[in-house]
Amino acid sequence: MQSRNAKILGTGCYLPGKIVYSHQLDERLGREIGTVEKKSGVIRRYFVENETIVEMAVKSAEMALTKARISKNSIDLIIFASVSRDKLIPNTAALVQKALGLEESGIPGIDIQSVCLSFVTALDMVSYLVHTGSYKSILIISSEIASIGLDWADLDTCTLFGDGAAAAIVSQSIEEEGSKILGSHMETYTQGIDYAALCMPSVFGDEEFVFRMKGKKSFRLVLEKIDSFLKTLFNKSGVIWNDIDLVIPHQASQAGLRLLQRRLDVPDEKWMNIFATHANQISVSIPTVLHRAIEEGKIKRGNKVLLIGSAAGIALGGIVLEY
């Protein structure tokens, strides 16, 4: 087992003020009313108007601090775990530190980018840091503006995404508490490296700055690998399916969520699906669902939770934690 004494003290999330309903996208795309909702499974999503990535990040962080009942001065490491950013340089964690009013603190800031698995990757890494006592209270933030890179001529992808931010405070737990990371596992299969891509503008070419995705190919590869992946993850974590109280999957697509739930044979009461009201928020999806599950009382201290998802690459990642 890979058990680490790491505890999620508090979580927070933020949704932009602009609600975009699927019937509004029907009108924008010149489609019959009901087309987008039927095809995507999304009723509404949230798009930014004037908010920046850092502004959303700070609002989610402030909520997480409140829920954790600690002050921002107690943080000794900031991790920004996302694809999106307001600037390429400096790193976004530094911008968040300043926006939180901590510019004189010297608190280190690090960016982690593993696409939709960025939060999971960050939680996995920081769990080792708090377990060893290297850091006491770590702030992880994911903040995404997916709406800026969508190809509105591609109905299969432009209707699936939403914006937002989510955060978590992670600290060391004591053995008697029970809260810990039981195990984690990640795999990457680069035969699917072109199944999802967003190219940066380049002086060396004229590629459009829009997101391209081959959703069916991506999901087929995930399904091909998921059984062996979970077997390895559960072996590392020392659990079986009956031990899991709640599954928190990445909210990639409504069709994908339903197929994966059936494939894994997870009952509805153990499966979190908020896709219809949030859409795919990239790295923000998993921490937002985690926040919702805590707020709605679907997980309590001592419950075993599976965080699982896939990402461009194609990568699979998962963590089994005792909340």
Describe this structure in words.
The chain has 323 residues and is α/β, with parallel strands linked by helices. The chain has ten helices and 13 strands. The protein has helices spanning 22-29, 35-40, 53-68, 92-99, 118-131, 155-158, 215-237, 254-264, 275-278, 285-295, and strands at 6-14, 18-21, 44-47, 77-81, 109-112, 137-144, 164-172, 180-188, 196-198, 211-213, 246-249, 304-311, 315-322. A five-stranded mixed beta sheet has the order 1-7-6-4-5, sandwiched between helices. The chain has a four-stranded mixed beta sheet with strand order 8-13-12-11, sandwiched between helices. Strands 2-3 form a two-stranded antiparallel sheet. It is globular and about 55 Å long. The mean pLDDT is 91.
Chart the SSEs and their pairings:
Blueprint: E1 6-14, E2 18-21, H1 22-29, H2 35-40, E3 44-47, H3 53-68, E4 77-81, H4 92-99, E5 109-112, H5 118-131, E6 137-144, H6 155-158, E7 164-172, E8 180-188, E9 196-198, E10 211-213, H7 215-237, E11 246-249, H8 254-264, H9 275-278, H10 285-295, E12 304-311, E13 315-322
Parallel strand pairs: 4-5, 4-6, 11-12
Antiparallel strand pairs: 1-7, 2-3, 6-7, 8-13, 9-10, 12-13
Helix pairs in contact: 3-4
As residue ranges, the low-confidence spans are none
- Mind describing the biggest β-sheet? 5 strands, mixed
Rg, Å, rounded: 19 Å
What is the percentage of strand-forming residues?
Answer: 15-25%
Q: Please provide the ordered H/E string of secondary-structure elements.
A: EEHHEHEHEHEHEEEEHEHHHEE
Report strand order across the widest sheet: 1-7-6-4-5
- Rounded mean pLDDT is 91
> Number of DSSP strands?
13
Helical stretch count? 10
State the helicity in percent bands: 25-40%
Judging from the principal axes of the Cα atoms, what is the shape? globular
Structural class: alpha/beta
Distance between the termini: 17 Å
